[in-house]
Design brief:
single chain; alpha/beta; TIM Barrel; 8-stranded parallel sheet; two-stranded antiparallel ribbon; 12 strands; globular; NADP_OxRdtase_dom; oxidoreductase activity; NAD(P)_OxRdtase_dom_sf
Length: 338
């Protein structure tokens, strides 16, 4: 069974917001959001230790404890170990994400892509998630946005550590699949070029959206499709700016980005559609994409996502987007099928 089949549909749920991304989310609201996702038919849940220093995993585990494990697909990540020591969350250096989880738990986070840390990370995640297995495990953030010029050194540690451990666990049937979960295209291209254990899937956040997709189109998407590596698109709303928010790339959006979004919004209004619908359906139009996992921290957002997925978008909208250079000329579009 391919990853595409395991994901049980096109829309998943990204739990980064449940780690108190940008704001302190009440526990009841977080749990209600997961329940709303379930009631709306979502059965693909993605999380990570980094999200609030384990907070998102704890909340997801509590919310899903009443569900039968065989009824949903669960992915988490390795590369960070959460300790019982404490630090000020607001002072954490999280690469380009800055203090995005400043409202998370105070537990200290240690970056480690080695073999032993990978096994420990999985064991700790299973405890927080109250489950006995993970379906997909991604190696998290081994890229430039977290390590700058030193990212290749981190990648090499992962290559001889996490990659090989996860490949063995998949072959033993302990996990169903593994891959990389990053915000940059380069690590994914590099892994596809190596004569190393080959991944099953990539979770690519923010790099295949209406606002940023050209680099992924050039080489990554064709190479992934050729290798049979499914792409899961994270962050389809570009940190919220495409869904009515103010953030882009985990920071306040620049005037240039705001102007581009306003341009897209004007075309959408002209054709009577929502920008959120355009963002979701654009990502899913590429044949290499198996699923899209927008995040949410409020229950009502889940129904909005499902409505956006079902919304009818006329081909003339996509034609206008292409003609005004708001999407790449070679980007697959839903309107191309009409």
């Amino acid at each position: 069974m391919s990853i595409r089949q395991k994901l049980q549909g096109q829309l998943g749920f990204g739990t980064a917001p449940l780690g108190n991304m940008f704001r302190n989310i009440p526990q009841a609201e977080a749990l209600a959001t997961v329940d709303a996702a379930w009631e709306q038919g979502i059965r693909h849940f993605d999380t990570a230790p980094l999200y609030g220093a384990g907070l998102a995993e704890l909340r997801l585990g509590e919310a899903l404890a009443k569900r039968k494990r065989e009824h949903y697909v669960l992915s988490s990540k390795v590369g960070r170990v959460i300790l019982d020591e404490f630090e000020d969350p607001a002072a954490r250096q999280l690469g380009e994400k800055g203090g995005v989880f400043e409202h998370g738990r105070p537990n200290k986070i240690v970056n480690d892509y080695g073999a032993d840390a990978t096994l420990r990370s999985i064991e700790d995640s299973l405890k927080r998630l109250k489950t006995d297995h993970l379906d997909i495990v991604y190696v998290h953030d081994v890229a430039q946005d977290f390590y700058g010029d030193g990212w290749l050194a981190q990648f090499d540690i992962a290559r001889t550590g996490a990659f090989r451990v996860l490949d063995r666990l998949r072959n033993e049937g302990v996990i169903k699949a593994w891959g990389l979960g990053v915000n940059r295209v380069e690590p994914l291209e590099l892994l596809l070029d190596l004569n190393e254990p080959q991944p099953d899937a990539f979770l690519l956040a923010g790099r295949y959206t209406l606002l940023d997709h050209e680099r992924a189109l050039q080489r990554l998407m064709p190479a992934a499709a050729k290798r049979g590596v499914d792409v899961v698109v994270g962050g389809p709303y570009s940190s919220g700016i495409l869904a009515g928010g103010t953030h882009f790339e985990y920071q306040k959006a620049s005037p240039e980005i705001i102007a581009k979004v306003e341009h897209i919004k004007a075309i959408a209004q002209q054709h009577g559609i929502s920008v959120k619908a355009a963002a979701l359906q654009f990502a899913l139009a590429h044949p290499a994409v198996a699923s899209v996992i927008p995040g949410a921290s409020r229950p009502e957002r889940i129904a909005e996502d499902q409505a956006a997925l079902r919304e009818q978008i006329p081909a003339v909208f996509w034609n206008a987007m292409r003609e005004q250079n708001l999407v790449a000329a070679d980007a697959p579009l839903p309107g191309d099928k009409e």
